[in-house]
Automatic annotation (TrEMBL):
InterPro entries assigned to the protein according to its UniProt record, in alphabetical order: ABC3_permease_C, FtsX
Principal location class: membrane
Entry protein name: Cell division transport system permease protein
UniProt source species: Shimia aestuarii
Keyword rRNA processing: no
Keywords: Cell cycle, Cell division, Cell membrane, Membrane, Transmembrane, Transmembrane helix
Residues that span the membrane, as ranges: 25-46, 168-187, 223-245, 265-287
ABC3 transporter permease C-terminal domain span: 174-290
A single GO BP: cell division
């Protein structure tokens, strides 16, 4: 493929018009699809980072909620902390302060929530070791020693979130595949139109001894270079648009982290060569089919 595209033939290139509807269609289609591919790739990579972050943050943390009468709350909290300190697999455990619990409730109830006067359960943050702990055994111990305690190991939250992020990542790759297929279809239409428009020129070339492979090679080279140029422009524009998006922020959540990080910025650079490969295959198939029909 590289040799066919790189080795130019001035005589053969005259077979394919350098401008016109098909040239503009190929450039526009390749550029637009490359632009969309950059965003689909960014979505897929951001979804992967999101799934990993959710898994890392929730996998090794748990929450203990203590609901008890006000006169028993401090005693049960102290008993729960002592129990957690002696539980294998737990790295640390600490009771959240009133200020921290107020911050957790602030998005729903506002900043002036009177925590001291409301029967709000006491929350204990648990950090696990790499090996984790036996949640079933811990629940039994808590039931016996701290009857007002409820353990949440975040499993019911983590699994659906990781599954949703994984499906979103898969959706991004499916979108990239569909964009590639659409690019191939549009380039095929443009190549068919160019071949049909030059039917008389092709007939003359055949009369003077030109082989179909020679004619097809001219069309393949021209359309591959057009797709490469259009995709390069679309990729640059897409990367520029990604740069203009807000950086990742805790307040903004997932939508502010849509972009590339580190070596990920090199991945969009693969889009123009891949678009050229699609154009090469699509134009070659279209040329062979149309030339056989014109025979």
């Amino acid at each position: 493929m590289i040799a066919t595209v790189a080795a130019g033939d001035a005589q053969a290139d005259r077979v394919v018009p350098p401008t016109g509807f098909t040239a503009r269609l190929t450039l526009f289609a390749a550029g637009t699809m490359a632009f969309l591919t950059v965003f689909a790739l960014a979505l897929s990579l951001a979804s992967g980072r999101l799934a990993q972050r959710w898994g890392d943050e929730l996998a090794q943390s748990s929450t203990l909620r203590i609901s008890a009468p006000a006169e028993q709350l401090d005693a049960q909290t102290a008993a729960a902390l002592r129990l957690l300190e002696t539980t294998p697999g737990i790295a640390s455990a600490r009771a959240l302060s009133d200020k921290e619990q107020r911050a957790l409730l602030e998005p729903w109830f506002g900043p002036d929530l009177p925590v001291d006067s409301l029967p709000i359960p006491q929350l204990i943050e648990i950090r696990e070791t790499d090996d984790g702990y036996d949640s079933a055994g811990l629940r039994l111990r808590l039931q016996a020693e701290v009857p007002g305690a409820v353990l949440d190991d975040h499993t019911r939250w983590r699994k659906p979130l990781e599954r949703a992020a994984g499906r979103l990542r898969l959706l991004g790759w499916v979108a990239i595949a569909l964009i590639g297929a659409t690019t191939g279809a549009m380039i095929t239409l443009a190549a068919n139109a160019a071949l049909a428009a030059n039917a008389q020129v092709i007939s003359v070339l055949r009369l003077i001894g030109a082989q179909d492979s020679y004619i097809a090679r001219a069309f393949v080279r021209r359309f591959t270079l057009r797709a490469l140029a259009g995709a390069a422009i679309g990729t640059v524009m897409g990367m520029g648009a990604i740069l203009l998006l807000p950086a990742a922020q805790d307040e903004g959540g997932f939508l502010t982290g849509l972009g590339f990080t580190g070596a990920g910025w090199a991945l969009p650079l693969m889009i123009p060569p891949l678009a050229a490969v699609v154009a090469y295959a699509a134009t070659g198939a279209a040329a062979r089919r149309t030339l056989s029909e014109l025979a």
